[in-house]
């Protein structure tokens, strides 16, 4: 049976991290979003004002995206509670974060311990606590969102982390938010969650990132390349290496999550979000080598069908074209500029 405790972390919150977390050389990486349906808005900047202090629940928050998101929200003056199983520390000091900043964050972050798949516990504990806004960072199935909605009938906003992996494969790229989705994709649970939020009539916002990179990433995305480069090993890349993909920095994604909070133009909308540039698999290997000061890498192309890798991933990206449109033409400026583009 899950147990619940809403307590302040014992570890000694955070001033916003400097932009130096991304050490790639080049122009700034821009994270933008595009509206799903409303395409007739007048031109002009989208003015995002700081919302009033909210009582916010983050489902997850101790692995990657939520670590940065929680800091930004606390910095904005919100009361932030993380709902986790308690298997990881609620607060951990980030690269480049001062001792004072970490102590401030740790003194303010709250914790609700439990298993989100224990639906009855979720309903009872959330109803007892009451929250204005939910950030669902680790939700994978619609059934996981239902008890949250049941427990919080007066919820002001449900902000969901979806995935660009929901789109149906197509020969016509990039993907727009209005493009066909794949009900059989490995992310079908996220599609079903978006549909549930729409059906329940709540004020919801969904962000669909592509690949995410940055500090503390538990998926071996950019890290995979750097490990091989440091070891002096060649970079094995499936097939031609000309497959085009797209990446965005975790800090930019977290910033976008903050900007949709309380924003009426984000109400019941889906947003693509990623870096503004596309990159080939070969290009990414070369960019990582350049960023880390290594010579041009040795790239070996291989046919994945000729090998049995078992359950291991031979390459950190899916062997397919994967990129989305983040064009905001005619919709106003809704973007953050923090990090340098790793492939220009």
UniProtKB/TrEMBL annotation:
Gene Ontology biological-process entries: monosaccharide metabolic process
Cellular component per GO, a single term: cytosol
Domain NAD-dependent epimerase/dehydratase: 56-273
TM region positions: none
Molecular function in Gene Ontology: UDP-glucose 4-epimerase activity
CDD domains, A to Z: SDR_a1
Pfam families hit by this protein: Epimerase (PF01370)
PANTHER family registered for this protein in UniProt: CHLOROPLAST STEM-LOOP BINDING PROTEIN OF 41 KDA B, CHLOROPLASTIC, UDP-GLUCOSE 4-EPIMERASE
Protein name per its UniProtKB record: Chloroplast stem-loop binding protein of 41 kDa b, chloroplastic isoform X2
Organism lineage string: Eukaryota, Viridiplantae, Streptophyta, Embryophyta, Tracheophyta
């Amino acid at each position: 049976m899950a147990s619940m405790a809403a307590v302040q972390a014992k570890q000694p919150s955070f001033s916003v991290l400097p932009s130096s977390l991304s050490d790639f050389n080049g122009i700034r990486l821009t994270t933008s979003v595009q509206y799903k349906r409303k395409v007739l808005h007048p031109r002009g900047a989208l003015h995002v004002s700081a919302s009033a202090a909210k009582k916010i629940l983050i489902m997850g928050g101790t692995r990657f995206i939520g670590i940065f998101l929680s800091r930004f929200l606390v910095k904005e003056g919100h009361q932030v509670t993380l709902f986790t199983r308690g298997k990881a520390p609620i607060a951990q000091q980030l690269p480049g974060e001062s001792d004072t900043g970490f102590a401030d964050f740790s003194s303010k972050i709250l914790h609700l311990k439990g298993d989100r798949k224990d639906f009855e516990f979720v309903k009872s504990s959330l109803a007892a606590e009451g929250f204005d806004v939910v950030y669902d960072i680790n939700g994978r199935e619609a059934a996981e969102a239902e008890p949250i909605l049941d427990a919080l009938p007066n919820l002001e906003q449900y902000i969901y982390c979806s995935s660009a992996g929901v789109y149906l494969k197509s020969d016509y790229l990039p993907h727009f938010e209005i493009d066909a989705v794949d009900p059989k994709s490995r992310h079908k649970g996220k599609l079903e969650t978006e549909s549930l939020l729409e059906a329940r009539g709540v004020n919801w916002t969904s962000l669909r990132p592509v690949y995410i990179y940055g500090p503390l990433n538990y998926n071996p995305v950019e890290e995979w390349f750097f490990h091989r480069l440091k070891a002096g090993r060649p970079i094995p890349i499936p097939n031609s290496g000309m497959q085009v993909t797209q990446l965005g920095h975790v800090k930019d994604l977290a910033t976008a999550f903050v900007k949709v909070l309380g924003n009426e133009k984000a109400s019941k909308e889906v947003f693509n979000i990623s870096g503004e540039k596309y990159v080939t698999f070969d290009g990414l290997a070369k960019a990582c080598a350049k960023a880390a000061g290594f010579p041009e890498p040795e790239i070996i192309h291989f046919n994945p069908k000729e090998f049995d890798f078992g359950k291991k991933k031979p390459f950190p990206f899916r062997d397919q074209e994967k990129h989305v449109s983040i064009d905001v033409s005619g919709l106003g400026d809704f973007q953050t500029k923090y990090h340098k583009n790793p492939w220009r």
